[in-house]
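User: Last request for today: this protein with adenosine-5'-triphosphate, please.
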Amino acid sequence: MASLTRAALLTSSAMAKPSLSSSLFQPQNPTSMLPTSVAPRPSQFLSSASLCRPLRAVASPSSAPIEHDVGEDAHSLRQICTGHVPDHVLRRMEEVGYVVPTDVQRQALPALFSGRDCILHAQTGSGKTLTYLLLIFSVINTQRSAVQALIIVPTRELGIQVTKVARLLAAKPMEEEMEQKSCTVMALLDGGMLRRHKSWLKAEPPPIVVATVGSLCQMLEKLVFKLESLQVLVVDEVDFMFNSSKQVSSLRKLLTFYSSSNNRQTILASASIPQHRRFLHDCIQQKWTKSDVLHIYVNPVEPMPSSLNHRFMICHKNKRHETLLSLIKSDAPESGIIFVNEQSEKSKKAGNAPPTALLLEFLRSSYQCSSDILLLEEDMNFNSRAASLLELRQKGAYLLVATDLAARGIDLPETTHIYNFDLPRTAVDYLHRAGRTGRKPFSDKKCSVTSIITSEERFVLKKYENELMFDCEELFL
Ligand SMILES: Nc1ncnc2c1ncn2[C@@H]1O[C@H](COP(=O)(O)OP(=O)(O)OP(=O)(O)O)[C@@H](O)[C@H]1O
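Assistant: Here's the final one, the structure of the complex with adenosine-5'-triphosphate:
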C-alpha cells in the first residue's frame, strides 16, 4: 500500500491565538462574542510551522505532546471498526466496496470511537462521509425510538447523497430484519414533504436524521422534533454553513442551545476550514464542542488531491464560449462539469438571460457528443434538480453545466474533467470545484481542472495557486 500521510491531531491546547482579523466564524451579532480574556494561554500555542508538519501527536491540555494511537497499523476498515460498529453494518460496508480505510478514516475513527469531538479537515473526496457514518452506527441503538444522530448539510442534493450512503450501510439481510428492528434514516430536506415527516417524527422518531437547517428549524419550532436523545451531531461542509448568511444564525443556535455539547459527540467536517485555529478556538469558547476537541487535519501541506492536473487557457472575455468549445473538443471528456458563476442580482434585474442557460444552449447547438448536456443551478425547482442528478448518476457519461450548487460535497466519481468557465470567486471555491473530480480514493488516474481566464485574471489564479499550493500549466490550442 502506498505510504500513508499522517494527520495533524491538535487539541484545544495546541491552538494558536486567533488572529485579530475578522473570522469567517464570527457571530453575526458581535455582542454575543465572548470576552477576549478567554483566549488560550501563550504556552498553548503551536507555531504555524509545527501546524504544517505532519504529526501523530496529541497535545494534552497540561503537558507536552503525547503519542496517540491513530490506528496506522490497522490494514482494513473492519479491523478498525470491530468491537464498535455492528457486524451487519461492517458486512454491508464491505459489500459496497469499502474495505481499505482512507487516510482520514484510519486517523479519525479510533479517536471518534473513543468519544472525542472532532473537526474532520481532509481533502475533497477523502471519505469523510463514511467516517462520520461509521461513528454514528457505533453509537446508536436501533431498538430505541428516538433521534440519536443528526447530520446537518447545506443543500438538499448533499442531503440526498448522505442519506443514500447511510441507508446502504443500514440495510440488513432479510433474516436479521425479522429478528431486530432495522435502522431508519430520515431525510429532512428543503423541498421535502414536511407534513409527512411530521407524522413520521411523532409516530416513530428514526435513529438517524439528515437535515438541512431550514427544514430542521421548522420542525424544532413546531416542537415535533426533540434533540434530548441526541448522541452525535455532524455538521458537514461546516465552513460553508458558517459563511452562508441564510444558515449561520440557525446553525449557531442549534450548536449552542438545542442540545448541550456535553451530552453529545460533535463532528464538524470540511475540506476547507479557513482560519482553522480561530475556528477551533470559537468552537470551544462558544461550547459548540467539548474543550478537548481534536482537529484531525489530514495532509495539511497538500490541500487538494495530487491526482489533479491544473491547467488554464487565456482568452478574450468575448471568446469564452468558443474557447470552451475548442477545449472540450480537444479533451473529449467522457464526464465533465462546467462551472459558471451565479448570475448577479443586477444582471437579473436588467433582464439578462442567465449565463448558464446561454452556455447550455450554445453547447447543445455546437458540440456533438454522445452524452447529454445537463444543467444544475439554484433557480431550478427541486424536482428538476433531483432529476438532473439522477440522470447523471445513471448515465455515467455526461457534461454538466452547473453553478457552485454542485461544488460542495456532490460525489460523482466518474467525473474526469472540471472546467471553470468563470474563475471561482475565492480559492476555497476553486478547491471545492476542483474536488468534484479525482474522487476515487485509491485510483492513480489523472483528472484535469481547466480554468478559462482573461489575461487580467491571471494574477487571481496565481494567488489561488499560492494559497492552495498547486501549479497551473498554460494551455495553447
Ligand atoms: N474506504 C473507502 N474505500 C473506497 N472508496 C471509498 C472509501 N471511503 C470513501 N470512498 C468513496 O470515496 C468517494 C468520496 O467520499 P466522500 O463523498 O465521503 O468524500 P468527502 O471527503 O466527503 O469529500 P468532499 O469534501 O468533497 O465532500 C465516494 O465515492 C466514496 O464512496
